[in-house]
Every structure is written in structure tokens, then in C-alpha cells.
Write a structure and sequence with these properties.
The protein is built from five helices and five strands, in the order E-H-H-E-E-E-E-H-H-H. With 300 residues, the protein is an alpha+beta fold. Strands 1-5-4-3-2 form a five-stranded antiparallel beta sheet. Residues 116-137 have low confidence and may be disordered. It has helices spanning 17-22, 26-37, 88-114, 141-159, 174-296; strands at 2-6, 41-46, 50-56, 61-69, 72-77. Helix 2 (26-37) packs across helix 3 (88-114).
């Protein structure tokens, strides 16, 4: 999603959290603050007018591009969250950039405050000793020894993934600037490790989710195969029933034909039976006449 917001700030570093919150949805700003607290934001490249970054969201890794151009704040994110005018991921990027730039300014100001102001040599025919001294010459050997001792402890702490030891008590100067730079690098390294750990955890969760989906898919495929087998068995039974019904239909037709033949034979038998009755009646009449004739005829 891409958004375009009017912006009066001349640099991205001037966008403070209050200004960002004023143009954000309350829910989106709350989630963005959680992302920053959980160190889910990774700024790949940044300047006063543009930021390239990635954010680990609740549903994946998203890429953002924020630009300040011609009085407008242009933000684009690879997510599809319907939040206006800024999505939660772009809000988190602006908050993280403000935090990061504030930390950088703090380190820079600390270095400037601790760096001693060196007097400038006056022009003369005879060179002053100050003009022949370099910044390395201004460093005391005792400070260097303290720095080396602290550096050894710091390396052991880094190897054991422990916090850096307290800074040694030394005068403000180049050595203190070295210590501040090492601490800043260590902080950035730890932030990178935290982001990497979060990404690895996200990857493990996604692999586990993919494994569960694979198991569900395999179970669904097995159920589909069983259903197909059952369907084929049912189809065979249906075909058997159809064949049986066809045979029953044929037998019904044959029975109907036999029934008609039987009915015709019965009608013929009835007709013949009636004829036989008539013949029998005639025979009886003849027998009765013969008996009457026999009775009337005298015996010799």
C-alpha cells in the first residue's frame, strides 16, 4: 500500500513521535510502538529525505520505502493492512528512525563535548610546539593503557555475550571517543542480533506451520483416496444393482408374456369346458331317453 501525506518538516529527523501519532490511527500507532519495543524494525538505508527498511509483522516480513519530497511524506509498504494514512509498519519505521537519529545525535554531541578544544598556534617566524603536535600526540600513555585494559575486558564480555564493562575513568579526548564508538557499534550489533533472532524464531514458526499444513494436506490426500475408493466401490454396487434391475425388468416382461399366454389358454379351456358341458348335457338327455325307452319296452 502507498500513501501521500502533506508534511511541513524539512527533514525526516524533525518528525517527532507526537507528529507521527497525530496523523496515525490509534490502534496502528499502538502496534507500531510494540514493534519498536520488540526490535522488529530494521533500517537498511536512511538519510534526511528517504528511508529503506523492513519490519517483521505478525504475518510475515514487509518492506517499506519512506520519502520526503516536495512537501509530502510518501510511504509505501508491501503489506495489505487497510490503515490510513500510514500503516503500522511505516509508523514503526518512522519511530525507529527518530530513536536511531536521536541516539546518533547524542553520541555525536557527547564526543564533541568530551573533545578538548585545542588552541590554534599564532603565526610567527618561529613555529610553536603546538603546531607540531598531532591528535595522537595529545593522547596520554596512561589513557591508552586504560583503554587497552578496558578493550580486553570488553572483548571477553562480547565473547561471552555479556554487557560491556564500565568505561574507565579517563580525561575527555580521543580515547573516550574510541570507547563511545565501540559501545555504539556493540549496541548496533546487539540490535542486529536481536532482529536476527526474531527472524530465526519467525522462520522456525513458519517451518512448523508449514509442517502442520503438510501433515494436514497428507491427511486430506489420504482421506481423498479413501473417499475415491469408497466411491468406486459404491459405483460398482450401483452398476450391479442396475444390472439386477435390468434383469428384473426382462423377467417382468417375460412374466407378463407368460401371463397373457396363460390367460389365453384359460379362455380356450373355458370355451372348451362350455362345449363339453353342452355335449355332456346332450349325452345325459340321450341317456335319459334311452332309459325311458327301456322302461316302456316289454321284456320277452
Amino acid at each position: 500500500m502507498t500513501n501521500r501525506i502533506p508534511c511541513s518538516a524539512e527533514r525526516l529527523t524533525l518528525l517527532v513521535p507526537q507528529m507521527i501519532q497525530a496523523v496515525s490511527e490509534a490502534a496502528a500507532y499502538h502496534v507500531a510502538c510494540q514493534y519498536v519495543t520488540e526490535k522488529r524494525v530494521r533500517i537498511a538505508d536512511a538519510s534526511d529525505s528517504q528511508i529503506s527498511s523492513t519490519v517483521i509483522g505478525n504475518a510475515g516480513l514487509y518492506e517499506q520505502q519512506v520519502n520526503l519530497r516536495d512537501g509530502y511524506l510518501l510511504s509505501s509498504c508491501s503489506c495489505s493492512v487497510p490503515e490510513e494514512p500510514l500503516c503500522r509498519h511505516s509508523i514503526a519505521v518512522l519511530l525507529e528512525y527518530h530513536r536511531w537519529s536521536a541516539a546518533q545525535e547524542s553520541v555525536t554531541s557527547s564526543i564533541q563535548k568530551e573533545s578538548p578544544s585545542r588552541p590554534q598556534a599564532k603565526h610567527s617566524n618561529k613555529p610553536s610546539p603546538l603546531t607540531l603536535q598531532s591528535s595522537v600526540a595529545d593522547i596520554k600513555l596512561s589513557d591508552i593503557l586504560k583503554f587497552v585494559e578496558w578493550l580486553q575486558l570488553a572483548m571477553k564480555a562480547i565473547e561471552k555475550e555479556q554487557p560491556l564493562p564500565p568505561s574507565p575513568v579517563i580525561e575527555a579526548g580521543e580515547v573516550s571517543a574510541w570507547i563511545l564508538a565501540i559501545k555504539s557499534l556493540e549496541d548496533r550489533r546487539r540490535e542486529t542480533e536481536d532482529v536476527l533472532a526474531t527472524l530465526e524464531a519467525e522462520l522456525r514458526d513458519r517451518k512448523a506451520y508449514a509442517g502442520r499444513l503438510t501433515q494436514q494436506l497428507q491427511a486430506s490426500v489420504a482421506e481423498l483416496k479413501a473417499t475415491q475408493t469408497t466411491s468406486r466401490d459404491l459405483e460398482r454396487e450401483v452398476n450391479t444393482y442396475r444390472a439386477t434391475l435390468t434383469k428384473l425388468g426382462e423377467l417382468t416382461n417375460e412374466v407378463a408374456q407368460y401371463d397373457e399366454q396363460i390367460r389365453m389358454a384359460a379362455r380356450e379351456i373355458l370355451e372348451k369346458g362350455s362345449h363339453f358341458d353342452k355335449v355332456a348335457t346332450s349325452f345325459k338327455e340321450v341317456a335319459d331317453e334311452l332309459q325311458s325307452v327301456a322302461k316302456t319296452t316289454p321284456h320277452p
